[in-house]
Amino acid sequence: MSEPDPATRLIQVPILTRVEGEGALHVRLRGREIEDVQLKIYEPPRFFEALLRGKPMDDVADITSRICGICPIAYQMTSVQALEAIQGIVIDPEVARLRRLMYCGEWIESHVLHIHLLHAPDFFDCDSAIELAKRFPEQVKRGLKLKQIGNRLLEVLGGRAIHPVNLAIGGYYRLPRREEFTALIADFEWGLQHSIEAANWLAGLTFPDFQASYEFVALRQPDRYAIESGSIASSEQSSIAVEDYESFFYETQVPHSTALQARKKPNDTTYFVGPLARIHLNYETLTPLAKRTAESIGIKPPCRNPHKSILARAVETVFAFEEGLAILKSLALPSRSRVPYTMRAGEGVSATEAPRGLIFHRYRVDARGKVEFAKIVPPTSQNQGQIEADLRQLLPQLIALDDAKIAIDCERLVRTYDPCISCSTHFLKLHIERT
User: Fold this and answer.
1) Confidence class of residue 3 from pLDDT cuts 50, 70 and 90?
2) pLDDT digits over 389-419, tens only?
3) Is residue 25 within 8 Å of 415, Cβ to Cβ?
4) Does the chain have fewer CB atoms within 10 Å around its N or its C terminus?
């Protein structure tokens, strides 16, 4: 039996903490050369696309929401809109406003969770949110209350905060009562003020000196910050229609992962989706207080430091409270909860902006409304290749450090993306071979 090379260094972190899901990161170094970087997503795939085949259209939203307990609205909304496109449904304008409001609630609860419990501990050398809360109790309590407001909005519009059940093809199964919306106004006024305070707290962070060259990709609308609809914008090319998504982006299987990774045609390049991409491409359509906050905390385009994604999330939290409050104060309840339609066969697509970035769905249904085909591309799948590329760029700066410090810095870089591995099917231990 051959002996291992004594010059080889192996670094292993049993599991990456403060991300959603499990998997492994493998890095092999030879001297100062980086031989290999792999995000090894090893949990068994959950086959949601296959599970949807043969299911009635009305069941799709409930099933897809189970992909993620943190961002179920992203999966529900994208699936419902794709199915509505097949049936030629145009929802009522006030229902559309309710859906935008609902998405604001998900952005709030997801962003605040990541900022305060998952990402901020890295900037204070805290191993956990519990340790962070001991040092900054008021800031963490504020974050938990902000998240609670987002959850409450999802309860009102979705029926419950986790895996909501109220979103339907053509609208909603039930419209909330006016007093339920009225009761949210004071909470959103408080949330807007305190989300700005939270952003100002984060402005004092010290960020690692890391810059990367990214192709940012996100939805864009000409007159408002894109969330639930829009065309696909890129920092490297002109606008792409959502219907043409698969002409420009594709998924590929890599041997070391049970999750697909996305690439951009024609050069098989990686790209970046998420809050930093949205701020880069849509800065001018931020709401007034959100834009003012971005200016004051120093997160203006171009920003190519992924560690500053925490600032982008903070700005989008302010935006979601500001936008949500405006909708709540001016909302006219729809006259009907759903648009009636006649079932027909066909194929449809939709793209929205999940908290973590662009999400794309395509469905084909038969004349009975049964699903024949489903394709779901989550944001984390699209970012996986970019994370590997970032690590390849970062590692030359770390080679002189000891193994433990390299592991910590790699973990922190991965966490900036807020990877939701359950969506893509799953993440992350760290293993480094050093020769």
Assistant:
1) very low
2) 999 899 888 888 888 888 889 889 988 988 7
3) no
4) N
* Tokens 């403060």, located at residue: 18
Q: Which two tokens stand for residue 89?
A: 């449904």
10: helix, strand or coil: strand
DSSP string, 268-283: TB--B-SHHHHHHHHG
H/E run at residue 23: strand 23-30
Token representation of residue 194 = 């305190």
Neighbours of 330 (CB within 10 A): 8
Residues 280-292 have a mean pLDDT of: 98
Please provide the size of the chain in residues: 435
| Residue of higher predicted confidence among 18 and 2 | 18
Q: How far is CA 242 from CA 35, 52, 147, 247, 411, in A?
A: 37, 22, 31, 10, 33
Neighbouring CB atoms inside 10 A of 265's CB total 11
Are β-strands 23-30 and 428-434 bridged in parallel, bridged antiparallel, or unpaired? Answer: parallel
Q: How would you classify residue 170: left for phi > 0, otherwise alpha for psi between -120 and 50, otherwise beta?
A: left
Q: What angle do CA 88, 227, 329 make, to 5 degrees?
A: 95
Tens of pLDDT, residues 132-160: 999 999 999 999 999 999 999 999 999 99
User: What does the pLDDT average to over 11-34?
Assistant: 61
Of 1.20.120.1760, 3.30.160.20, 1.25.40.70, 1.10.645.10, the CATH number of 70-213+270-374 is 1.10.645.10
User: Which pLDDT belongs to residue 424?
Assistant: 47
208, exposed or middle or buried, with CB in 10 Å at 0-12, 13-18, 19+? middle
Interhelix angle for 309-330 vs 137-158, to 10°?
Answer: 50
Residue 354 structure tokens: 């999940």
Residue type, 397: Q
The answer to whether 98 and 167 have CB atoms below 8 angstroms apart is no
What token pair was written down for 405?
């410090």
Burial 273-312 (b: 16+ CB within 10 A, else e): bbbbbbbbbbbebbbebbbebbeebebebebbbbbbbbbb
List, in order, residues 6 or more apart from 207 with CB less than 8 Å away. Answer: 123, 305, 307, 308
Nearest to 80 by CA among 361, 395, 369: 361
Please report, for the chain, the start and end positions of each structural domain, with discontinuous segments joined by +: 70-213+270-374
pTM of the model: 0.90
